[in-house]
Amino acid sequence: MSTPLLQDAGVPFDLFISSLTEQLDKAQASMAIKARLGKLPLTFAVKEVSLDLRAFVQILDDDIYLRPAGPGETEASSIKLQLTTITKPMIDENSVDYSTEDPKFSLREALGDQISETEQRQLERIGVRTVQQLNELKEKAGTDVIARLSRMPVNRLQQALLRAAAPRVTRVEPGAGTGPGDTSGRVHLSAPGLRPGRLPRVRAAGESVAVVGAEDGRIVLAPMASQLGCEAEVDFGDGQVARVELSDGRLGQWRPA
């Protein structure tokens, strides 16, 4: 049963479209079964669907709701919808790939309390759904442009960007050594604060951590076994210092130099 809010406001526009296309999917599947089982040499299919609706439109919490007009309600808006077909390659080419970002490094997970649900929706409206996209947009457009397009306060956005740009452990490759001086394989970091041509200084457990690779915003470390799992200090230079635990999936944070 619908909640009182949905009964009064109608249904969300995206839910209406999803329900409509789901019904069309069922109709298409039914026609396909009939043609296959009946071995029909010729049958019919739905190519396009056009709808003229009389409905009231409301915006609640940035979502659009539709409520169909009832008898005698003459002030409703006229809404015309025309649905057409789309193939799987067209869907793959024109829709967002939600599997590209590791769930451990999603926008919500990375930014935590630095961003509210409303602010997250504001970023999603301009196409920013992952930490990587947020950092890329900052490099190309700058903080002021993101703040203006997303309608977020600049100071809130700067806090979010600072958190998003902190290093994070993307992968740990354990080594065979277990002694205090043995290396523990490799620790891969995503490091948006990395500057081209400059290796960061990394320390953990009171000793330096070997940096064996640094390019394209990524760092590869070769810590000793005793340093794995410890909090590391990553000094990018120019006063940029971050801390991150050398464990799989850990997110770092900035601190004053």
3D architecture notes:
- With 257 residues, the protein is α+β, with helices and mostly antiparallel strands.
- The chain folds into 3 domains: 4-94, no CATH class; 103-164; 168-255, Immunoglobulin-like.
- Helix content is 32%, strand content 28%.
- The protein has helices spanning 4-9, 13-38, 88-94, 107-111, 117-125, 131-141, 143-150, 154-164, and strands spanning 11-12, 49-60, 63-68, 77-83, 168-173, 186-190, 201-204, 207-208, 210-215, 218-222, 231-237, 240-245, 253-255.
- It has a 5-stranded antiparallel sheet, with no helix packed on it.
- A hairpin with a 2-residue loop joins β2 and β3 (63-68).
- α7 (143-150) crosses α8 (154-164).
- The protein is elongated, with a radius of gyration of 26 Å.
- The model has no long low-confidence stretch (mean pLDDT 81).
Chart the SSEs and their pairings.
Layout: H1 4-9, E1 11-12, H2 13-38, E2 49-60, E3 63-68, E4 77-83, H3 88-94, H4 107-111, H5 117-125, H6 131-141, H7 143-150, H8 154-164, E5 168-173, E6 186-190, E7 201-204, E8 207-208, E9 210-215, E10 218-222, E11 231-237, E12 240-245, E13 253-255
Antiparallel strand pairs: 1-3, 2-3, 2-4, 5-6, 6-10, 7-8, 7-11, 9-10, 11-12, 12-13
Point out poorly predicted stretches: none
Q: Using the alpha-carbon principal axes, give the shape.
A: elongated
- Count of β-strands: 13
Overall structural domain count? 3
List the secondary-structure elements in sequence, H or E: HEHEEEHHHHHHEEEEEEEEE
Largest sheet: 5 strands, antiparallel
How much of the sequence lies in strands comes to 25-35%
- Strand arrangement, largest sheet? 8-7-11-12-13
Radius of gyration: 26 Å
Mean pLDDT: 81
Content-based structural category: alpha+beta
Question: What's the number of helices?
Answer: 8
Ends apart, CA distance between termini:
57 Å
In which range does the helix fraction lie?
Answer: 25-40%
